[in-house]
Every structure is written in structure tokens, then in C-alpha cells.
Amino acid sequence: MTKDGAGTDQIPGLDDLPRTSPKKPEKPGKARKKGARRPADELPVARVAVDMSLPHLDRPFDYQVPAELSDGVVPGCRVRVRFAGQLVDGFVLERVAESDHAGKLLFLERVTSSERVLTPEVAALVREVADRYAGTFADVLRLAVPPRHARVEAEPAAVVDGAELSGDGGPGVWGEYPAGASFLSALADGRAPRAVWTALPGPGWTEAIARAVAVTLRAGRGALVVVADGRDAARVDAALKTELGEGLHVVLTAELGPAERYRRWLALLRGTARAVVGTRAAMFAPVADLGLVVLWDDGDDVHAEPHAPYPHARDVLALRAHRAGAAAIIGGFSRTTDATQLVESGWAHALAADRAQIRAVMPRVRYVGEDGQLARDAAARSARLPNLAFEAARRALEEGPVLVQVPRRGYVPAVACARCRTPAQCVACQGPLSLPSSHAAPYCRWCGRIAGDWKCPECGFVHLRALVVGAKRTAEELGRAFPGVPVRTSGGDAVLERVGSERALVVATPGAEPPAEDGYCAALLLDGWVLLGRPHLRAGEETLRRWMNAASLVRPQGPVVVAADGSLPVVQALVRWDPVTFAERELAERREVGFPPAARMASLTASPGAVRELLADVRLPEGAEVLGPVPVPSGPGADAQEKERALVRVPRDGGHALARALKEAQGVRSARKATETVRVQIDPLELI
């Protein structure tokens, strides 16, 4: 656990934003002395963040406050202003006595709502995130503050009854970690420890998070928990209800709908709720007096925001913890290289169990292809369900459910010519063909066109073979291999929430594995080559994360069979249940070749002319290296326009300067009214 304020040099740009304390209100009935500062609601000028995403206009603008609106114009409220001849939305950042603008100021048009929806803490965080990712304040603000619902806003705020927290306040499952009790003690004392947590396999991670949140609330501060999806949010919610009781926390997920989501968001803003668990968007939730941030399974790609400026929840929560002086837990069953970078930099400390405890609760992992197994089953290396996996499933089904993880959903998501193995593509859009069932004609996954008359363009053959087998086809095969055993699928739109203790085969895609009541009796991890063979910088890291998440659902010492080459480091990490050593090795290798997170990189994507114009305008920091540009493969629904991508690489300490330079160059293009916008992504997940 780090001391308060440790590691500030690892997050550049945090210290250049002012920290202001709230002003004490004047006592009623007392006249203000001559020359004394006037209350904010009497100051004539409002500084407004206008909802305008143009980079060259990314700054606040001053507006005159009409006397009739003065009482409602408060910092953080929503207003309507006239900008470039149009009425646009905005947020009041502050009120000041006079403006630096030499010309005449326009008046505010109206106050949309006097609710202080943009707190000073969140406003400062939004500014920092925008600068870190070469984005604009308006773009980040749309992610941070949800749309207004007037009916919900008019509802009376709930009254906090001040009930005592339930629970015993002890370490609970944190006692299984050597540093767990000291971490909780630091939280209870109001300090700000930061930990990268490698969780033990099993369902105890929800209880551990709930206990940390409870200790934080007992210390008088708030807590924020971000998870990957609504299913994980529901599990943490159940643990929090057990630990905290009702009414002290809220859940924020997309499934709630806009009105209910805004209602719960207001509960946090108004102090009715003191803690929140939610998906990616909850990272900006207005928790009062924030004392703890938690990010679970930080390697999941859903934590990366798909909208500009594409911030990652891990970076946002790290910035927020640093700004608020809050504790931080970044955890998961596996370890990412980004989290390892935080440990090596000193920003956080590792929090893990000792090897004896890990061995007691980990599953027994075997891989297909070891010498003894090959002697008994010579076809095991190429078989999809070799004898080792078949026998492990057969024995485990005598006791309860068995989990089968397959990388792809659907029936046969990729097909090829049965003679020459050329991948089958659509003649209309060149998209990949797939089979939805055993009796259906192939169709294009991009445009949906039926390709019943497909013929191989290379050899003229008309028959197809499977390149990748999906979950539905796997379930069909297992049904024939284990007659009389129920086979259930989980993935896509049909995700199982939970599995009972009865004997059944559960076929699931990564991330859709439902927990079993008493844990699975065994797990089969099939088609490992599909995950490991992806042309992706993080293929090994992501594969280990998906395998460990599935294997963590198996009972202690239960069998897990992985269909992959046992000589690979990622397979050995799974067998030893040692994600930390694997992540440290990955980070060292990336440092040698200059890949993130050891270095900072920016991706620039647009038409060839626009990319080259931006590279010509940008004043890159010292040590920057430009890679490319190279053509970008077209995807589903892509325009006919050719696109290229260039990568800009700088040392890790040059990331802030790189973002600033790219934003300035974007501003130059914006001021010129360039017709095309260049997509700028800082440290994108996909580089290869």
C-alpha cells in the first residue's frame, strides 16, 4: 500500500489544476464590509463550458448573468446560451466579478436547471481526462453527466436515516491475503492505500470488495466500484446488501433505462447514497468525499470507452483516486501489464495470497499434448475433444455440472473451401461467410447476404469446411458425445445467470460463463489456438485472463483441461496459476520493443490526405517516433473511402506532451474548418 501522495510523478498533469475549498457562507443579517468579496450568486459574470466539441474552442466562455436569472445561476447548473448564432447547452463552471474578454458579453438565455449536476471534483477530472487523451472537455462531459430528466429531478430527495452499517467490521476474506488486514486498517484510518489485487479463485471476490467498501463508509467516506457488465454488478450489489444493508449504495448500469439511472445518479449527487457499483460510465459518478475506487477485471476490453476521446476506466479511476486522495483497488483473477506497470512505478503495491494458499484453492490444470497423454491418444493434438478432456468431463458429470468454454459464439462462424482451404468470402462485400445451423445456407456476417451458390474463387470447389466452431455447434457435438446429459449454452443475447448443482454441460463463450451454486466439477477450455492465434498485441495476456476467469469457477482442486500447446508461457502460467510472473515477463518484453504500457502511443486514423496533414501540422515532443502510415483494412459497413493509420510513439514520460501536441494540431485543423476529422486514440487497445 502506498502512502498518501505517493507516485504523483506517474500521472503527469495532476498538479496543475487548482484545488479549491468551499467558501464559508456569510451569516444572515450581516452587512458586507466595503471591499469584501461578494457571494457567488451576486457576481455578474458566469463562466460556461459550452457543449461544443471543436478542438480550437475547447475553453470556457464568459456570459453576462441577467438579474432575473441570478438566483438560479449556480456553479454546476445547466444553462442555455447563444453561441455562434445558435442556442446550445452549457454548464456553469463558476461565477466571477469581471471578465477578461475585452468586448461585449452576451447574456445567458435561460437556466435549464439549477441542480448542481457538475461538481468541482468531477469538472476537474473531466478537464484532466480530456487533456490526457487529446480530447475536448465537451466530449468527456457527455460521458460524465447523464442527460437530464425533469420529472425525476423534481422528485423529492430521499431522507438519509443515518442507520448504522451492518457487518462485523473484521477482515473477512481479506484475512486470506498477508497484506489484506493492513490494507483494511489503512482504509479504516482514512488513509489512501493503493493496491493491485490478484484475487484467489472462487466467488470470494465480491465479498472482499463489499468488505472494503463497508470499511470505507465506516470511516466516513464514499466508495465507487466499476465492473465489466451488469451480471458482475448484480453480484457485487448482492454482496453490498449483505455487508451494508439497504439504502446506502446504488447500482448504475445501462439496463436500468435513462429515468431510473438518472434517479440513482441524483441520489449520489445529493448524498442520499454513499457508494455506487456500476459499469464503465460509473467511473464519473458524483460520489461525495470519495475514499475508495475499485476496478474489477481491468483487462476486460469493455472498460475502454468506445466514444471520443476513448478513455479507459483504469486511467480515469487512477486519476480520480490521486485527485481525491482516495484509496484504489485494481483487481482480477489475472494480472494485466498495465496494472504491473503501476506496481513497478511505485504508484500501487501488489496484494496477493501466498503460494500455499493459492495451491489449496486453485484447480488442477492439465493441457492436451503432454507425452504420456499422447502415447495413449495419438490424435489428441488435433482432436477438438481429446480423450483426456472427454474422460475428465465424464467423471465430473457424476458429481455435478461441467463448464465448456469456446472462443466463438454461433454455429460455425468461419468457413473455408473444403479442398484448398481458402477462406470463404461474400461476393458482394468481401465479408466472411458463416453457417447459422447444420441445415442452413452460408450467409455473410457483414451484409447478411445469403450465399447459397458460393463457389471457391481459387479452385471452383463448392463444398465448405469449418475453420472455427462456435458455441451452438459445440453444444450439438457434446449432446451426441454425452447422451442423456442436458446441454445448456450461454453467450450472445442468451446469457445464463446461474447454474444449479445438477449434472449438466454448460457451453459458454468468454465472459458469459455463469457461476454454479457449488462451483463446477470440471472445466474444458477448447480451441485455445483461436485465442492465441489472434494478431493482437495483448493476445497472450487476454487469453490467460479468459482462461483464469473460467477456471476460477471450478471447485478447489477440480480438473481443468486446456486445449493448447503446453510449451507456451501462457499455458504454463495457467498450470502454475501464476499470472503475476507472466505479466512481469510480458511487460519486460514490451519494454524492450517499445510497446505500451512501457511506452505511450497514439493512433491517427483517417483518409491518407488528412493523416498526412495532421502529421505535418503537429509539433511532436522530443523523442517521438512516427510509424506508418499504413492502409487500414475495411470492416463491416465501412465506407468506400480509403483510410490509413499512423502510430506515434514516445517514451512513457512523454505521454502528456504527445497528447497536448496532437490536440493543438487538431485545433489548427478545426480552425481551418477541415472537412474531415482525424480519429486520435491515445494508447488504444488494438495496435496490431
UniProtKB/TrEMBL annotation:
<comment type="similarity">
    <text>Belongs to the helicase family. PriA subfamily.</text>
</comment>
<dbReference type="InterPro" id="IPR042115">
    <property type="entry name" value="PriA_3primeBD_sf"/>
</dbReference>
<comment type="subunit">
    <text>Component of the replication restart primosome.</text>
</comment>
<keyword id="KW-0862">Zinc</keyword>
<dbReference type="InterPro" id="IPR041222">
    <property type="entry name" value="PriA_3primeBD"/>
</dbReference>
<keyword id="KW-0238">DNA-binding</keyword>
<feature type="binding site">
    <location>
        <position position="417"/>
    </location>
    <ligand>
        <name>Zn(2+) 1</name>
    </ligand>
</feature>
<comment type="function">
    <text>Initiates the restart of stalled replication forks, which reloads the replicative helicase on sites other than the origin of replication. Recognizes and binds to abandoned replication forks and remodels them to uncover a helicase loading site. Promotes assembly of the primosome at these replication forks.</text>
</comment>
<keyword id="KW-0479">Metal-binding</keyword>
<feature type="binding site">
    <location>
        <position position="420"/>
    </location>
    <ligand>
        <name>Zn(2+) 1</name>
    </ligand>
</feature>
<keyword id="KW-0639">Primosome</keyword>
<keyword id="KW-0547">Nucleotide-binding</keyword>
<feature type="binding site">
    <location>
        <position position="426"/>
    </location>
    <ligand>
        <name>Zn(2+) 2</name>
    </ligand>
</feature>
<protein>
    <recommendedName>
        <fullName>Probable replication restart protein PriA</fullName>
    </recommendedName>
</protein>
<keyword id="KW-0067">ATP-binding</keyword>
<dbReference type="InterPro" id="IPR027417">
    <property type="entry name" value="P-loop_NTPase"/>
</dbReference>
<feature type="binding site">
    <location>
        <position position="459"/>
    </location>
    <ligand>
        <name>Zn(2+) 1</name>
    </ligand>
</feature>
<feature type="binding site">
    <location>
        <position position="456"/>
    </location>
    <ligand>
        <name>Zn(2+) 1</name>
    </ligand>
</feature>
<feature type="binding site">
    <location>
        <position position="444"/>
    </location>
    <ligand>
        <name>Zn(2+) 2</name>
    </ligand>
</feature>
<feature type="binding site">
    <location>
        <position position="429"/>
    </location>
    <ligand>
        <name>Zn(2+) 2</name>
    </ligand>
</feature>
<keyword id="KW-0235">DNA replication</keyword>
<feature type="region of interest" description="Disordered">
    <location>
        <begin position="1"/>
        <end position="42"/>
    </location>
</feature>
<feature type="binding site">
    <location>
        <position position="447"/>
    </location>
    <ligand>
        <name>Zn(2+) 2</name>
    </ligand>
</feature>
<dbReference type="InterPro" id="IPR005259">
    <property type="entry name" value="PriA"/>
</dbReference>
<feature type="domain" description="Primosomal protein N' 3' DNA-binding">
    <location>
        <begin position="47"/>
        <end position="146"/>
    </location>
</feature>
<dbReference type="Pfam" id="PF17764">
    <property type="entry name" value="PriA_3primeBD"/>
</dbReference>
